[in-house]
Amino acid sequence: MPRSVNHVASRNRRKKVLKLTKGYYGARKNVWTVAKNTWEKGLTYAFRDRRAKKRNFRALWIQRINAAARLEGMSYSRLMGALHKNGIEINRKVLADLAANHPEAFKAIVDKVK
To answer: What contacts 113, CB < 8 A, 6 or more positions away?
Structure first.
């Protein structure tokens, strides 16, 4: 009796991965094993970088707040300590946005905690 193999399912599975790797360079887009490995590695990068993105943005916000605080004659750590001591609950994302786009509002906050 001949061996029965589900070619339809395996071909569809391969086509799905090859469709996802469309636009990649060289064999990464059309050679099944290379494309599959590239796609799988891309998933691990995506998983890792969803977490790294949060770290990168926090670091960016801290740099922006520090630069704006130093223009007002204060360091980042002193500003954040004063904010917490005065009970001003404002997160770094909003504070960085104020520092970059609304310097007068940022200055008002710094004057309040000085």
So the answer is: 79, 82, 83, 85, 86, 88
